Amino acid sequence: MFIKNAWYCAGWDYQVSQGKTALIARKIAGERVVLYRKLNGDVVAMEDRCPHRQAALSMGSKEGDELRCMYHGLKFGSDGKCTEIPGQSNIPERACVRVFPVVEKDNWIWVWMGDPLKADPSLITDAVGPSHPDYNTRPCYIQIDADYRLENANLADLSHSSFTHDATIAMGWAQALAKPQHKVLPRGVKTDYWVRNVPVPKFVEHMFPPGFMCDAHFDITQTVPCNWILHFRVFMAGTATEGESDGMLVLDSWSCQAITPRDERSVDYYYSWGVSKATDRPGLSDLLKEGLDEAFREDKAMLEGQQKRMEEKPNFKTFDIAADAGPGKMLWVLDKLIKEEASQSESLIASMA
């Protein structure tokens, strides 16, 4: 089940060009959407479904700012209204396509899937995108065939990094033994913690002297439907046991991740890792991208295996451990907002009866 009154990431801005045939098909929270750019550069998002016979508008043709269905030739303006039906002059009132509010921010394209009157751009998560002047950021993408609730739980619990990502981004058992602080937000969870005097991840250990140890700070904001923004800093191991590390800063970075459910068992995962220009060096940003790509392939295998087993035994009784505190809080927020939205919808229907 999905929250409707929320901004969903529909991809990176570079994925929707001004090309004549650049009609981008997406499936977002169970709804088929087609994206294209108008001549002024604005992105249009409309339902990927011609109201005449449900043909895919993403298989259509751009004509200026308008979109023609290539099944029977109906043409629609960027507002969704039909402007032409070949062979007849009258246009039925029902000949219109749903159009969704769109905002571009931090190199992501955001689509509001609910009530257009409630589309508040201030609800879009803040991120550090590839165009940020102070960071060298590499954008990435992967599709994972798993429920977005599993993704929410996975991201709210970094203890899994010590095991799932032992060969890539794990810092030994540091994440598994950490004591993160979780603060519930109106539309998500804020997580903050330090790990101290720990090894660097294996995929970068060749860049440091043998036995090099570090301190690392994780500052995470996770929001609905499934957005995860990490400010990740690494220092040479210092002597401080509380608060800011007193070691030398060696990495200042942001990993920004927007996970969009296609349906109840698959997601589009748009992510990046960017290094501050002050702590970057030639090839480092590319190396971090390579490491994150491999780590997410590890996540993909784990989550897709989990999805299959949950489908095989949907009533299987699991149990919680301490590491489930973050996932529990994040899923509680998500479920609360979904229930509130459903209640408001039921009240509106009742008032109209």
Automatic annotation (TrEMBL):
Example GO molecular function: oxidoreductase activity
Domain named Rieske: residues: 7-111
Pfam families (UniProt xref): Rieske, VanA_C
Gene3D superfamilies hit by this protein: Naphthalene 1,2-dioxygenase Alpha Subunit, Chain A, domain 1, Rieske [2Fe-2S] iron-sulphur domain
GO BP terms, alphabetized: methylation
Transmembrane region(s): none
Keywords from the named record: 2Fe-2S, Iron, Iron-sulfur, Metal-binding, Methyltransferase, Oxidoreductase, Transferase
InterPro entries noted in UniProt: Cholesterol_7-desaturase, Rieske_2Fe-2S, Rieske_2Fe-2S_sf, VanA_C_cat
Protein name as it appears in the record: Vanillate O-demethylase oxygenase
